[in-house]
User: Fold DNA-directed RNA polymerase from Oncorhynchus mykiss.
Amino acid sequence: MSLLRLCTFPKCLSGRILLEISVRRVPYVDHCLTIRNNIERHISEPPWTSQRRHFSALIPKKEDGKKRVWEQSQLLDVLKARIQQLQSDVIVDVQHEKVQFVKASKSGIGASSGNSPKNVFGERTEVPKAGQTISKGGGQTGKGEGKDASASKSRWMEKLSQEKKTKTKKLKQKLGLEDKPVKSSKGKLMLPGTSHKTISTKAGIKTASTVKKSKTLKNQEHTMAASKHEHTMAAAPVAAANVPIRKAKGKGKASKEPAPELSEARNRAEEMERKAEAKAQELAEVEELERKLNQWAVSARPELVQDNSEARVYGDVQRSVRCYLEACVFCGDIDRAHRFLLGHHRMVSRRNLLNIGLYNIMMRVWAKKGSLNQIGRMFILIEEAGLKPNLGSYCAALECMGRNPDCSPHVINRVLRQMEEDGLPVDELFSHCVFRQDERDMVLRAIHTVQPDFQSSINTILQTCSSPLVKDFYTERDLLAVQRLVWHKALVGALREGKIILASSTQKAVRLSLYPYLCLLDEKDYVDIMIQSLSNLPPSGESLHILAKELGNRVHNMFCIRMKGHNQMVDKLSHIYNEYAELLAKDSKEFDVLPRERWWKLEAEHSSGPSLLGDETHWPHMVVVELGTYLVDLMVKHMKVNSDILNSAYDRKLIPVLYHMYTFRSNKQVGFIKPHPILTQMQQDAMDTTLTFDSYVMPMLCPPVPWTSAKFGAYLLTPTKMMRAVEGANQHEILLEKCQDADLHAVLDSLNQLGNAAWRINQPLLDIIISIFNDKGSEKLDVPPPNSEAPKIPRYNQQDSATFTSAEKAHLKREVVNAKKKCSEMHSLRMDALYKLSIANHMRDEVFWFPHNMDFRGRTYPCPPYFNHLGSDVTRAVLVFAEGKPLGPGGLEWLKIHLVNLTGLKKRSSLAGRLEYANSIMDDILDSADNPLIGKKWWQNADEPWQTLACCMEIANAVRSPDPTHFISHFPVHQDGSCNGLQHYAALGRDVIGATSVNLIPCEVPQDVYSGVAQQVEEFRVRDAEKGLKIAQVLEGFISRKVVKQTVMTVVYGVTRYGGRLQIEKRLKEIDDFPKEYVWDASHYLVHQVFSSLKEMFTGTREIQDWLTESARLISKSGSTVEWVTPLGLPIIQPYHRSRTQMLKATIQYLSLQITHDSKERPDTVKQKNAFPPNFIHSLDSTHMMLTALYCYSAGLTFVSVHDCFWTHAITVDTMNKVCREQFVALHSQPILQELSNFLLKKYCSGLQSEVKSKKFLEYRRMLLLLAKVPQTGNFDLQRVKESTYFFS
Assistant:
C-alpha cells in the first residue's frame, strides 16, 4: 500500500535542505526543536551530502509510474481532506513542499526505509479504529496495547517524546495552569494535553469536541484508512493546548463568569487558531506555485535540463578530456589523442563520462584527412556509448565526403536521409556548426554532389529582448528591420523562380527577353535595390512608370560599375586619379595648365592596360522601364506583412505592403503603386535616422574626374552623361560624336572649372535651420512644417450627405480635394527639406565638390540633384567656399552691399546708397547675428532671409576681428544680371532703348526694367479708363512691379499669352483687396498690355524673336529639327518630335508610353518654333558664363554660377565684374546672328528642288529668303557695357 508523504522545507533554508517527516505526530514546540536540530546538522554537512541523503527517497518507484494516472485522481481527494485537517489544526512554520507516493511494506515500515519489500497493489490493509494509532512497527495499539507500543519505540522516539513533554510542561507553566485532570462538560475526566478542535464557519467559531467523541492527542497520530482505492496519509504535527474549553450549549452547565485563566486560554487558543488558518492559506499558495512550476517543467526542453545536469556532474571531467584532445590535435599528435579517447571508451565507468562533443573532435580530425573508414569507426563508437550523433557529427562526415572525390553519391544521400530521420535539418549545419578553414566549402561540395541547386539559408532574424521595460524600444526599432529581412528572403526566392521561368520560355528567337538583364548582378543586389526604393516611396504613392524607371536606372548604373571592374579598368583609374589629386592639392597652382590637360598627360604616361574611355551602350528607355516594371511586380506580389503586426486585435492574415491601383491624371488613367498604411506606420514608428542615397546623387568627397570627352568625366565609376537629354533621346550623342575633340575643349574646361570649386557647410546656420525644422518648421522662413500641421481632410457620412444639395456636395468635394492636395504638397516639401538638411548635416565636417554637366542648350547644372548651390534660399545659405580668402580693402563693403541686395529693399538705389543703408542698420545686423531667434528678427523680413542671416553673421565676425581687411572670409558674394535674357536680345539687336532698360549703358542708378514695364502698362490703363473701359477702372492702384515681373522675365524665354495670363492671375489673387470676380478679366487685359509695352520698349528684341520663331516654323515644316552651334562650338538640337504611343505589355499592367523624341517621327512644329527663341538665348547666356569661368580660372579666382548669377569671394568681386563685362562684349562682338543664318542656310537649304513649280519648292524658297534675311541692328556701342556698374550687380 502506498503512503502519501509530505516533504517540507523550512523557510530559513529557502528550499535548499529537504526535510522528511515520517508518520508521526509531535506537538508544535517539539517539532520546531527537531527542525532546528536537523537544520544545524545539515548546515554542517556539505550540500551534496544533504542532497544525497534524500536522493533515493525522492525518486518514485517504477510501479508507481505505471499507476500514476489513477493515483493523481485519488490524490486530489486526499489533498482536499488534508487541507481541511490542516485548517483545523494549530500549525506554525510548516511548509508543504512536495507530495509523493511511497510504497509501504506489509509490516507497516515507513518509506524512509529504502530496503522494505514492495507492497502488492490492491492488497487490503487493516483500518485502525478510532482511538488507535499506528506504531512504528506497524501494529495497532488501542487502549490496552500501550505497553507494546512503548516497547517498540526506538531511542530516537523516546528522546523526541521526552522533549515534547518538557516543552508541554513549560507551555502549561507559562499559561498558569496545573497539570491535573479536568472535567469535561459531562463530568468525565480529560487527560492533560487534550484539546478541543474548533471549526471556523461563516456564522462564527464553535467548539466541536464532546465527551463522547474526544480524542487523545498525546503520543498518538490520526490516520485515515482506505480500502482498495484509498491510501494512508500522514498527519502533520500540531500543537496541543492543555486547556479545557466549556461548551456554550450542552447537557453540562456553562459557567456564567469564566475564570480569568480560562479566558486567557481561550484568547490564546483563538490566536493559535488564526495562525492555523493563515498557515493553511499559505499552504494553498505553495501548492499553486508548485502547480505552475510543474507546468514550466513540462514546457521546458528536456534535453536542456538533462545537459545541464550532466554538466554539473561531469563538467570538469569532460572539460579535462576535451582540453587534452584539443591540445594533442593542435600539436599534430593524432595517435595519442585517438588512443586516449579509445582508452576512455573501453572502460565502461569512464565511457559514461564522455559526450558526443569529444567524439566529434576526432571525427573532425579524420574528416580533414578524408578518411571515410575512420569516420565510420567513430560512428560505431558513438553507438556503443549510447550517444546520438548531432549536427557536428554529420558535418564532419559530410566534410570528409566532400574532400574525398571518390565518395559515392549513394553514401552522401544515406547521410542526408539519416539526418532527416534524426530531425536535423541540413540548413542548420550552416547556422549552428562552427567552421574552420575550408570546412564550409567541403560540406557544400558534398551536398551539391547530390543536390546541385542547394543553397544554405541562414536565419538572420535577430531575437528581441522580451523584457516589458524595453519591449517598445526594441519592437519599434527592429520591427521594420526584421520585416526587411523577411522581404529580402521572399524576393530572392521569387526572383530565382522568375529567372528559371524566363530561361525555359520558348519564345521566338528575335524577341528580346529580360532574362539576360536579370543575370547581370547578384540576386541580392536586385533585392537591395527593390527594398531601398521603399524608403523613397511617398505615402500617397508613385506612378508605376516613374518607379519602374528609377529601378531600371539603378540596375543599369550598378551594371556599368561592375563592367568597369570586370574590364580591369578600376585599378588603372585609381592610380591615375591619385596622381591627379596630388597635383590639385599643391599650394603653388599653375593656372596656365588646365585640369583636362593634366589628366590627359597622366593618362598618356600610363598608356598600358585597358582604356579609361569605355564604350558602354546606354540601355533603351523601353528596356529600362520593362526591367523596372518586372521588379515592381515582384515587390507587389511577394512583399507581405501580417495584418496584426501593429494591432493584435486584428485577425492575422498576410497582406501586401504595396498595392497596384489606378488613378486619373489629366483625364488619363495611370497605374499607381501605393504603400499600405501599415508600411507607412512602420516606417514612422521605426524612426530610422538613416537615409540611403545612391552615390551619384551625393556631393563628392574628392575632386571630380575632369571631363576629357563627352563620354568620360565627373564621377569615378558611375556613368554620367555630359549632356542631359530627354529619356531615350540620342540625337545629342550623335552630334557630339561627330564633333572634333578640340571643338569641345572650351566647354569641357568650363565644366571642370565649375566642378573643381570646393565647398563646406556653414555649421552655425545649419544648426539654427535644423532646430526650426524639428520645431514644426516655419512657412515664413521657407522651412516646411511637418504633416501634423497639415489641414484635416473633411470626413462626411453618407447619411449626412444625403440631405445636401448638389451644389453643397460639389463644394464639399472641392474641400476634400483641396485638403488632400495641400497635404500632398506639404509632404513633398517636407521630404525635400529633409533630404537637403540630412545631406548637409552629413557633410557638416567635410570638404566636398559638385561635379557639373549640362542640358541640351548648354546650361550647366550640378550633378547631385538634392543638395547644391542651385537650390532654395535654405540650401544656398548653408554653403560657403572651402577655400577662404582675406577680405582686403573693399571686401567688407561688398559684403554689406551683398546683404542689402539679399533683402530686396534698395533695388533702385546706387551702390553707394546701398552701402550707406547697410551702415545705418548695423545694430540690426549685429542683433540678427547674435540673437537670430530671440532678438529683433530683422533678417526674417528679407527676400532671402536665410542668406541674409548668413551674411549678417559674416559681417559681424569681420567687424569684430582685429583687422577686417585680414579677416579670412569663406562667404560667396553674388553678382546678378539685370534681366539677362533681355540683355542678350538688346546686345544682339544693338538696341539703345532696350540696352538702357537693362543696364547695358552706364547710369547713376540702376534701371529696373520691371518697373519700367509696370509704368508703361499704367499709362495704357489710364488711357483706357478715360475711355470708360470698366476693367481698366477696376485695376486702378493695383498695377505694380510685382504683378508684371514674372511675365516680363519669361517673355524673353518664350512664354505665351496664355502662360502670361496665368502668371498675372496668380499675382492678382495674392492681393487681398482686389475683387476676385474681376481676376480673369484683369489678367487677360494686363497680359495684352504687357506684351504691347515690351514691343514698344524692345523693338529690336521683338524683331529678332519673330525671325527666330518663323525660321524654326519653316524648318520644322520642311521635316527637319532645328539645329545650331554656339559660339564655343557646342552643337545643339531641339529633340521635339510628334509623339507616338508605344505599348509595353508588362505582367502587372500594360503601359502606354508617350515617345516624343523619336527622330523617325516628323518634328513637332509648334514646339520647335516656340522653343527656338528661348533656347537660343539660353545657349548665349551659357556661353557667356563659360567664357567668364575660363578667364576667372586663369586669373586665379574661385568662380561658380547659378545661370546668370555669378559667385566669388568678396575680395575678387571687382576682378570677376571686369572679366564678366569683357567676355560679354567679346561674345556679342561676334556676328552671332549672321553666323546663325549661314549655318541654317547651309544645313537646310543646300539642296535645290527639282520641280520649280511644286508646293515644296515654294516653301523651300520662302525659307531660303527668310533665313538669309538677318534682322537689322541698331547703333548701340557694346564697349559701353564695360563701364556699366549695374550690368551685373
